[in-house]
Design brief:
The complex is a heterodimer. By secondary structure, chain A is α+β, with helices and mostly antiparallel strands. Chain A is 25% helix and 36% strand. Chain A folds into 2 domains: 167 residues, Thrombin, subunit H; 124 residues, Yope Regulator, Chain: A. Chain B is globular, with a radius of gyration of 23 Å. Classes of the chains: A alpha+beta, B alpha+beta. At the A-B interface, helix 7, strand 19 and strand 20 of A face helix 4, strand 7 and strand 8 of B.
Amino acid sequence: MNTQIILEKYIENIIQVMTPYGSGTGFIVDDLIVTNSHVVGGLQEVVISAKKVKRVIANVVYDDPYYDLAFIKFDFPLPLLPLQLSQTKVEDGDTTIAIGHPYGLNYTATEGIVSRASRLQDDLEYIQIDAAINPGNSGGPLLNIAGEVIGVNTFIIENANNLGFSLPYFYIQEALDNFKEKEHDKIIKCPSCKNLICEEDIKKDYCPECGVKLEVARLRRKGYTPTGPTKLLEEILTSLDINVTLARRSQSSWRIDKGSARIDINYYENGIIIGDTKLCAIPSKNIDKIYDYLLEENSNLSYLQFSINENSIYLSYLIVDSSLTQKEGRTAIERLLKYSNKYDDILINKFGAILQKRDEED
Amino acid sequence: MNWLNFFHTKHDLRHTFGRGINASIPENEEELFIESYEAFEKKEVLNGYEFFFKSLINFSNEESNENITFTRDEDELNFIIYQGSAKITGTLTKESLYAQAVIIKKKNADVALKRYILERNYQLTYACYFSDSENIMLKLYHDNITMSPQKVFYPLRELALNADFDKEHIQSEFSDISLEDIEHIKKIDEAELRIKYKYLHKWLDELNVKVQSLPSNDNASMQAFLYLKILFQIDYLLVPKYKMYQKMNTKIIEYFSEENLLIEAKNEELKHYIVSLKEMSFESFSLNFYNAKYTFNPTEKTSYEEITSFISQSLTKIRWYKNNRYLQIIPTLYRYIAFYILYNYGLYPVVRELLHTLVEIQNSEFFESLDYTPLYDSKNQSFSKRTIMSRIDATISSHKGKYKSLEAFSDELNFSSMNEFSNSFYLHLQNLNFEDI
């Protein structure tokens, strides 16, 4: 099978995994999503999405920093064509396909070859590949030309060209078998004694078997806690009935879809908070009238303003972090949510503005 | 020796030089700012603003420039801020601040101008363009719930600087559209304009001679210094506005930001622009000047280390030219340093005053034509040594109240030639100590 056919055939198995710290890839094997431990960032909850699944919160049920593996439980129908773990030995020179979401570019398949079937790194074997994998590919599957999973793309050597490493399928199989044997939904694998520990048996983050401090246990217990202005922003969003875990794109950015409008809120390092909606694109006729309308509306709006960037019309709310208050912030963001969709409709229906194109999985 | 100047150390400037407020800030500026902060902390909002505005009033020759005026009663404070071509009017209550600047009549705006200001809205942080039935304006609204002088400074500064910048830009790009609310700007009298025009041509002629004097090859860097120095010189000494300033500023920005062009190609660009300046009629030239009050400086204050580092690098370059016997470029380089700093950096008032004195010495003839007592006689190559020393000492002592370790250096200057003088001046300027009281 060629790369494109493989991608199309198994695309429903490919999952985007998002945390406040970044995003990566995962893939479905049996009834679990397999990804890297570093992708889930030591959290119990992550946000996932797939070709036919909108953003949804899912639980990390297994976290294994030793293999850099994690399993996520999901609650949607299994793909019609499920991925299978390979049973065939990988050989040098085999053709491979890495699938992932590098730099947020969804469902990117990259073809390469096995440079070395077994490269020892510390005491683990990895498949060394020459496929160009990038941040965002982490946790994604490495497939052979039969479309079977031969590994999970785990790390690259930074500043080198095309030096990628995948954790081989047999480690994945072993981890899946051991996890299932435990019949428990909160398992951490101790990187020191390699025992599988039920989270509830962990006291003060120490491994009950070998006594080593379990960093993953500490992170899972602590969870993600926003602070300062991001905390206030999330409180404002929560007060507006927005699920902040789903809206959160990173520690300092949030996205909310409302009708045809999409509201992005970003908190920048210089202390400026910008909530803005890229509304429609300007039409090709009667443009002068739309400009007049936007300028007149700016007279009526408080907290919000219309502007144009490149060819799109924006409705924005800007504030400096130190000036953000619960009351005013709530009013402003509530208006942004309410008016974005309303103005998008007015501008499209009354002035012939053009609806924005959007990646369906974006 | 001018005995009158010997006793008269206070130097009164009757003209505007350079960009920004170009005037003295209140001696108690810091105290006013603290009082403003304390008033806001106590929720005495109008008092907080009053102290804040007072801290921004600037002075020329010890008289208020009235760049900010305000009236207040129990519940409201109304204010006007002047910033070049922009006049900001605003109202304050305990709850909120509203300010606006009228830019143009709405009916005069064409589609290109509307597009421009809507795109500007995307770039601005606090201020926003809008229109009512009559005008296009730039507005600012801010609630006073968590207000402090720091928080009000940047929004008002953005409003004022951008209203001024955009009015100048509109005048330059859309010259058939008249600006509104510019009654406060003052025309410059023709005699002064004639002097400016005369010196523009004099400098351009001198530039031509200088370029001819350079070695026939390997002279691109030297040409660049000559062209850039004259643009910085025109900016600081003649202070053009509108199209002339906008275009000159664009040329300078392009020169320093364009990395893919060879210096020779960039020099050609500057040369082409300089030729167009030479061809400008007096009538066209005159349209580019006015006097106005300013409240905010366009550049953020630069660290002193950055300035001393620039001086140090420049003096190293001068040494290279000296060692390689390119002596014809040396006087230009000494002038270039001062003009470059004045153009690019936000300066401590004391540094700005000292550099102005240096510029006045280096361009004595121009200042004499504006009726200032000359500090250097270029024919006899002699300095008004005592006046210069008194001026420098007066500048230093007037800032000693703020910086305890500032030391006068006038008696260590080398008056043997203009180059030596400039060199010793920069060396001492590098060593000023800005340790606070």
